[in-house]
Amino acid sequence: MDYNDYLNSISERFSNMEEIKIGESLVTVSYEEKFKIQWVATKLKIFSFIHYIDKIDIDTIENYSSVCTKYASKKHKGLPRGLQNGVVSFNVLVSEFVTDEAIEFVTSRPKKHFSLFETPIIYDVSRSKLYYYEGTPIWGSMYNNYLRSYIEDHFNL
Q1: How far from each other are the two terminal CA atoms of the chain, in whole angstroms?
Q2: Distance between CA 25 and CA 27 in Å, rounded?
Q3: What DSSP element (H or E) covers 86?
Q4: How many angstroms separate the CA atoms of 38 and 19, rounded?
Q5: How many other CB atoms are found less than 10 A from the CB of residue 45?
Q6: Is 8 exposed, middle or buried (0-12, 13-18, 19+ CB in 10 A)?
Q7: Each residue's pLDDT tens digit, 89-147
Q8: Could you give phi then psi for residue 48, rounded to 5 degrees?
């Protein structure tokens, strides 16, 4: 399986996908909003960024996740973050070559932001394996089950 097969397999799980330029790269992105009363009547603005790279090392995934998260922070629609709104940035990199340090980075607790979830994710095509943080975050734990299910349902094959 290659990147195009992966992208084709998951694209039907999103209501909309488009290519945008972030830095020097064309990145596939999807945006949607989810509202649930049990989230204390808050709405999540969900960005899913998906990009292929030849090799994923720790610097690559860290920089990619940071750039995608900044984009999501600036481009979300509606009320400011924190006013019944949260932003989620699922930052997926896909590759056949992934270093152990990169896997360790994405499976560790992600960076904390005010009312914004930065979620670096790796899909290793050679192992057909998805890597991400599976623990419970300190802030925003009420969203945790939904976000974990979203990752598995949308990015895993």
Answers
A1: 11
A2: 6
A3: strand 85-95
A4: 33
A5: 23
A6: exposed
A7: 999 999 999 999 999 999 997 777 555 788 999 999 999 999 999 877 666 665 678 88
A8: -120, 115
Contact (CB, 8 A) for 119 and 148 = no
Report d(CA 2, CA 132) in Å as an integer: 20
Contact status, residue 106 vs residue 61, Cβ threshold 8 Å: yes
Q: Please give the structure tokens belonging to residue 39.
A: 């989230």
Residue with tokens 């992105």: 29
Residue among 101, 76, 19 nearest 52 (CA): 19
Tokens for 3, please give them. 């990147």
Written as six digits, the tokens of 130 are 């998805």
Question: How far is residue 133's CA from residue 21's CA, in Å, rounded to a whole number?
Answer: 26
pTM greater than 0.85 (yes/no): yes
Tokens found for residue 110: 């992600």
The structure tokens 């750039």 sit at: 67
Distance CA 85, CA 127 (A): 36
Answer yes or no: are the C-beta atoms of 19 and 61 closer than 8 Å. no
- For position 87, what pLDDT does the model report? 85
